[in-house]
Amino acid sequence: MQISDIVLDHDQRVAADRLDEIAARVGKRWHRPRGLYLYGGPGRGKTMLMDRFFAALPSERKRRFHFHSFFAQLNAGIHEHGGIDAAAAALLGDARLICFDEFHVHDAGDARLVARLLDLLFARHITLVVTSNYPPRELMPNPLWHPMFVPTIDRILEHLDVLSVNGPQDYRRLGGRHTGFAAGRYLVGECPATGRAEVPVAHRLMHARAAENGALTVDFAELCGIPVSAADFLELTRRFRTWTLCEVPPLDSVPPDWVMRLVNLVDVLYDADLELSVYARVPLADMGADVARVPDLYRTLSRLGELSVPARDAVATLG
Fold this sequence. Notes:
The protein is of the alpha/beta class. The protein has helices spanning about 10-25, 45-55, 65-80, 85-90, 110-125, 145-160, 220-225, 230-235, 255-270, 295-305, 310-319, and strands at about 1-5, 5, 35-40, 60-65, 95-100, 125-130, 160-165, 185-190, 195-200, 205-210, 210, 215-220, 240-250, 275-280. The two termini are about 40 Å apart.
């Protein structure tokens, strides 16, 4: 089987066949399909498979969300409507199918919202298709909070079939894409941009090197060293379509919350397919020595691996 001239590996082929079965039954009153939970490492084709399935489905009663974006909209809706039920209803509309890309749970507060959201979806008999880097039993990995999320994991397993899409190849490392996010570069050295601009974000002013004509150039410490959220990054993407991040240090040299903000930033820019260039102090191979310290950092490093690397830095990385 092929998708857009891409030959699928075994895991992808099994998942594609299962998605085709769901597509044939979505909207059927008496034969509603079970949902599907696709998990595996970064770059294994999970999002490609889900997006192909979503685009081919003729029904208009469908919604597709990146998980960061959905939660930003949900939290805004809670403030607007006064509760999660009304906020979720406004987001979901009359959908019979919901697709979530990059489903994950790390925060105890988010875990409570996820639990309530899934209860709403399952009560409305909405078919759910999910991609994640985590198998269900590894969601909410913090041992302090994992037990409280186990009932929700059980609900996921009750309503969704689980398939691994975890073939041997990280397809992002094959290259070949030179638009959007992947049009950026990963460079080792000093950022050439100099200057000063103040950018409002999260009810404060962030100090950037440049912020004009839809392009933002900012130091890592200025952007990731302040208390901003994925929702704040989403808001910035409405103003800036080209991003340059300067002075990025080895990630084991900064606090974990700074690294987590970088993870969120790259997720947001990748999903929006906005160009990112990085000026770092070390080659990418040396950037995240301790990936276990911060959840999802390995996904970030995989995505940064799509950026082009000048020949001199590529040699340094290989050496």
